[in-house]
Amino acid sequence: MKSKIIIVTGGARSGKSAFAEHYLMTCKGRHAYVATAQILDEEMAERVAAHRCRRPAAWQTFECPAHLPDQLANVLETADAVLVDCLTLYFSNFLFRYEAEIDGVVMSAAEEEMRHIIEAVKQRADKTVVFVTNELGSGIVPMEKISRLYRDIIGCINQYAAAAADEVYLTVCGIPMEIKSRQIMLPMEERQ
């Protein structure tokens, strides 16, 4: 049986991680948590500590701020159900590694990285991988160029991940809603 990809998205503090954790608890087998955050200040340390307190002690934890495709392949050797929290932080780290590059190069590299992440899951059978990500760009256009590039990268990788996913959930005000099954499929336009 092919592996299952789940995307959980929403705004900041919308309940994404809590829902993803509960979802993973319903999965059978060995569980793993892949943390993509880097603890660079006290506030981030507090956020990480809060996440750790919510997770069952039996879950394996892997820290992976970079090189997720390779690390994910290794995690899937020892776990059947994996939560990656989150793609937004992972691609923030990714962007800072490529910040000296031209925008188009960075965007292409991010899209390629996301493709490799999805391939790492699809190469394994009978696994469930839940990816948490943020839904950005619903507000004003950021004033800084780097912020606009980051928003665009996240929008593109979210679209790619959701297209590859078996299920996609949107959390709003702590309420998760399944949205993939409700997507509108327009007929293909005939080309002349």
TrEMBL record:
One of its Pfam families is: CobU
The Enzyme Commission number assigned here is 2.7.1.156, 2.7.7.62
Q: Where does GTP bind?
A: 10-17, 35-37, 52-55, 63, 85
The EC class name is transferase
InterPro entries from the UniProt entry: CobU/CobP (IPR003203), P-loop_NTPase (IPR027417)
**Active site per the UniProt annotation:** H51
- Gene Ontology MF terms in the entry: adenosylcobinamide kinase activity; ATP binding; cobinamide phosphate guanylyltransferase activity; GTP binding
Per its record, the protein catalyses:
adenosylcob(III)inamide + ATP = adenosylcob(III)inamide phosphate + ADP + H(+); adenosylcob(III)inamide + GTP = adenosylcob(III)inamide phosphate + GDP + H(+); adenosylcob(III)inamide phosphate + GTP + H(+) = adenosylcob(III)inamide-GDP + diphosphate
Q: In which pathway does it act?
A: Cofactor biosynthesis; adenosylcobalamin biosynthesis; adenosylcobalamin from cob(II)yrinate a,c-diamide: step 5/7; Cofactor biosynthesis; adenosylcobalamin biosynthesis; adenosylcobalamin from cob(II)yrinate a,c-diamide: step 6/7
Keywords of this entry: ATP-binding, Cobalamin biosynthesis, GTP-binding, Kinase, Nucleotide-binding, Transferase
Q: Name one GO biological process term.
A: cobalamin biosynthetic process
Task: State the Gene3D superfamilies in the record.
Answer: P-loop containing nucleotide triphosphate hydrolases (3.40.50.300)
Which family is this sequence assigned to? Belongs to the CobU/CobP family.
Relate the protein's function as given in its record.
Catalyzes ATP-dependent phosphorylation of adenosylcobinamide and addition of GMP to adenosylcobinamide phosphate.
Q: What is this protein called?
A: Adenosylcobinamide kinase
